[in-house]
Specification:
By secondary structure, the chain is an alpha+beta fold. Helices cover about 30% and strands about 15% of the residues. The strands form three sheets. Strands 1-2-3-5-4 form a five-stranded antiparallel β-sheet, sandwiched between helices. A three-stranded antiparallel β-sheet has the order 6-7-8. A two-stranded antiparallel sheet has the order 9-10. Helix 5 packs antiparallel against helix 6.
Length: about 375
């Protein structure tokens, strides 16, 4: 789950309705509504059909991420059912959770604004759509607030994840039954880059970097957006089959949200409130990137500083050079993917290709915006510019 983003221009008005607590749906009710939508509205609330399978797919210090659906759809000849990823964050509780205070409704209103804005960049041709367009950000389907208790299906999925992976979070079953939750349903956009090991060619690797850079360039132009936490766990990849039947094409998307404060059309996270991110090991590319960002914004996290996006492109180039080169890791949040050597992966970079990525990194960290960076020589032959 990302955090640290900054957005300096917004065109979408947004306000929360004020509802009495008893009017809020329970978490089970909300999951049931999403299940109906996945089934095309064919399930009635009283239907005995089983809900889509729920699995935990990730966690952050403030909440959990779940995948709903994606298995075999009943009555569809065994075809894969659609899936959504649901992020659930406890809010406005008096008790600390996961070692710190809970997020507030105001915090999550900022994130909701960010999700809506980035999702809207993919609405090319829609009424009121921006002149800027990119499908590179995860599409937001719905945002809601619900009340506890925590869904028993999700509790079981949490316990299974904990047994298999060892959760760093406190059990969700320990949250009080009257807890409030902020929930966002997003498209299922694939596997994060940390875990994805199916890149098969140099062009695919360059394409991942280019698509991230193009997405950031569009969001810079449309929203003055800066991600500010684009470690490889926040880049999602899924195979893409082109209409002409050609092979070897990849689609990368960005999962970049979470803010802390909002003031009109400005939303940003003050990273000074979390000094630990600047105290990590020197030489660790992820912690170094946080420190370089801090220097670039001069500790004023409300400032517009698009070169921070370029710093993260440099980071991604380095972790990809390491992962698909001689093996290694991608920083403090890049554990599992970096444990495999290149010999276990589909792509193994040559010495010249690794050198080219690291030369790109040097150019990226000196660049002022992704709008300029997409014209870098690394992307030669991949980018088509149309008038």
């Amino acid at each position: 789950m990302g955090w640290g983003s900054a957005l300096h221009r917004s065109k979408l008005p947004y306000s929360y309705p004020h509802l009495p607590l008893e009017a809020l749906p329970s978490m089970d009710d909300l999951i049931g509504q999403l299940a109906q939508q996945l089934a095309g509205g064919q399930l009635e609330p009283s239907a005995t059909a089983k809900r889509p399978v729920v699995v935990k797919v990730g966690e952050g210090s403030y909440g959990e991420a779940w995948r709903l659906g994606g298995g075999k759809a009943a009555g569809q000849g065994g075809a894969a059912a659609p899936a959504v990823v649901i992020k659930v964050v406890p809010i406005d509780g008096k008790e600390d959770f996961n070692g710190g205070p809970q997020k507030t409704a105001a915090d999550m209103q900022s994130e909701t604004l960010m999700c809506r804005e980035l999702s809207a960049l993919g609405a090319a041709g829609a009424p009121g759509a921006s002149e800027h367009f990119t499908s590179g950000f995860v599409r937001t389907h719905a945002v809601a607030v619900c009340r506890g208790p925590y869904s028993s299906d999700l509790v079981k999925a949490w316990e299974k994840w904990d047994a298999e992976h060892g959760s760093e979070n406190e059990p969700v079953s320990e949250l009080p039954p009257d807890q409030l939750y902020w929930c966002i349903a997003m498209e299922d956009s694939g596997t994060d880059l940390e875990k994805y090991d199916k890149l098969e060619s140099w062009d695919q690797l360059r394409s991942v970097l280019l698509q991230v850079a193009v997405s950031l360039a569009v969001s810079e132009a449309a929203l003055a957006f800066e991600h500010r936490d684009l470690h490889w766990g926040n880049v999602l990849i899924r195979p893409h089959a082109p209409p002409d039947g050609s092979a070897g094409c990849m689609t990368s998307r960005l999962r970049g949200h979470t803010l802390k404060a909002a003031d009109g059309t400005l939303a940003f996270c003050d990273l000074e409130a979390d000094p630990a991110v600047f105290e990590g090991t020197r030489g660790d590319v992820q912690f170094d990137t946080y420190r370089w960002m801090r220097s670039a914004v001069e500790r004023d996290w409300s400032a517009s500083c698009p070169e921070t996006n370029c710093l993260w492109l440099g980071y991604l180039a380095e972790v990809l050079a390491t992962k698909f080169g001689a093996g290694g890791g991608g920083g403090s949040k890049a554990g599992a993917g970096g444990k495999k050597g290149a010999a276990a992966l589909g792509l193994k970079l040559s010495v010249a290709q690794k050198r080219e990525l690291r030369e790109f990194r040097k150019r990226a960290v000196a660049c002022s915006s992704c709008g300029d960076l997409i014209l870098d020589t690394l992307f030669g032959g991949l980018l088509q510019l149309e008038q």
